[in-house]
Amino acid sequence: MEDNESLHEEDLGRLSDQRLSVPSDAVAPRQVSSTGTGHLLALLDRGISATALESHLAASLHDGAINELTAGAVRRLNSQLQEAHRREQLLRVLYNTATDLTGIRDVEAILKAIVRRTRSLIGSDVAYLSLNDYVSGKSFVRVTDGATTTLFRNIRMPLGGGVLGAVATGESPAQTADYLTDDSISHFLDSDTAVAAEGVRAIMGVPLRVEGKVIGALLVADRQPHNFSSDDVSLMESIGTHAAVALENARHFSEMAEALAQRDSAQQENIAHVRGLEEIAALNRSLTETLVAAESMPRLVDLLAESLGSEVFVVDPLGEPLSASQSRQDFGFPTALRAAEQSAATAIPVPFTIDGAQYLVMSAIAGDQHLASLVVAGEFGATQLAMLERGALVLSVSMLFRRTLVDAELRLQLELIDDLLSPRAEETAALTRRAGRFGLSDTTPLMVRVISVADNDRQKSLALLRRAAEDTPGIIALHEGHLCVVEPVGRWASKQTANEASGDDGRSIVTILKRQLITATVGSSGPVTGFGRLAAAHSEAHAVLRALHALARVGEAADRAVLGTAGMLLGGTENTFAEQLMHAQLGPLFDYDSRHGTELTLTAWTFLENESAIGTAANELHVHANTLRQRLDRIDTLLDPDWRRGSRSLDVRVALRLWRLKTMGAIQTTS
Fold first, then answer.
1. Tens digits of residue pLDDT in 535-551
2. 3 state DSSP class of 476
């Protein structure tokens, strides 16, 4: 297009400067002699302007070479020659313009070429083209040449309004010598503001028609008021006709090119899809073979890593690695765990990011159970994603095989722990043999732990603790609605800090479960030797657990020693004495609460347990601080103010703790 523009630049310049008139460079009068009509005809043949011709005619008339009749004929002949020359130039320029426009295949480029050529041919200050939007009922300026303001370049004129709107819906050209002062056309504030900002006065436009439908308008404008000549209007109509055809051809070409591109893209996608299916089919065969291999997990990992071109990790639902052959990578971050859960729920790969690295996780599920997850680094296409999904399916089958073996061992532990903790358990050779399979001996100091977690966290906690204690002696199983552990003393020492290990009270278990957002409370027994004493140890551990709940110490681990005075009260005090102690210290509170339906005893317990802090105790009791102070004044009256201080405070605190353990069911007392 740029080459064609330069080829016809001379034509456009000449036409724009003279508004389609012939050149005025006629032969000077001094070259003319008075020899008559022959020489005049020679001048007409070479081309001469009307002004220069009059000089020659005056000289010939003066010499008597011609008469007025001949002079008039020469004038008419010259006018006809000028018109023929002008039309020849116009036709040549229009032909070149039409040739150039039809050679453009891009719609945007042809729109710009149309307004640029129009402005050059007419010689106007501004040229612009609008397209109709029949849905909104407006014609909007699509492209301009010579416009300097954003407002003018973005005019949206209602169809039928102004020169633009009238031309865009009409069948004939329209113009105005001075737009803003012309009352014969419809005016709109937005368009008038844009025209005023651009300084436009005279406007003329012609409709663009394609297959009988007006699709827009081609317009020119000048910043001086005037009427456009009929020649200008005719030229605009010719340009508009060619422009509409070229625009439509470009649109069809663009649509055809787009359709061909879409077809080529679809063909390439089909080829890639077929290749992907072939790769997946080959992978399916290899994956099926891994199921019957002795080491199915490592082979599965290696096969997927080779197919995907990236390292593959197999992790459990908590992000812990399941394959010993893979490098150690931590996928226990919340973002990774949430992505794995989402993949398990949707059965599709889910991306996630750790430290700026992009990963993809595909969970292996069986029914509604999340068995494990495949994690791979990087981003992948549809074929690789399908491979990952197939790998997760095979992993599910492999995990189900593995779970069958694990479940068999779980049943053995469940049966064994029921037998060991039964009060009627007998130390038979069979029981000793079964316990020895899990590293337990009746000659080794053992301890029992009872673990309380939320019901929906029980199975998950069991799996976590089994994994944490893997390859160490002991058994972990469900027993009487809670998790129960029978193990040698010191089993968790390697997993504890120095402070935790000193008492071996189960704090490591709390820590392990807390990492997975599970709140656990652990009651532990003291060491016992001999399977026959495990039932009593279980009762002790269970009593410690109840005491922790009674003392609002959920999420802690303890044995009787860690409980302190509460531990002493669990088994070191006679029931009759315990009852006497409570009534000696708290009798007035018991009587007052019984008669008035109040909670002074609970208030005293909460106040002392919160280190006598008014605000904290009030919040825990869900009362106002002033209400708590009134209750404390009443307690002072019933018990004497010294119940809060000194040695009396210790006696009252012990009595209150004993009351709390009794009311929460941690211990039983009799009158």
1. 888 888 887 887 777 66
2. strand
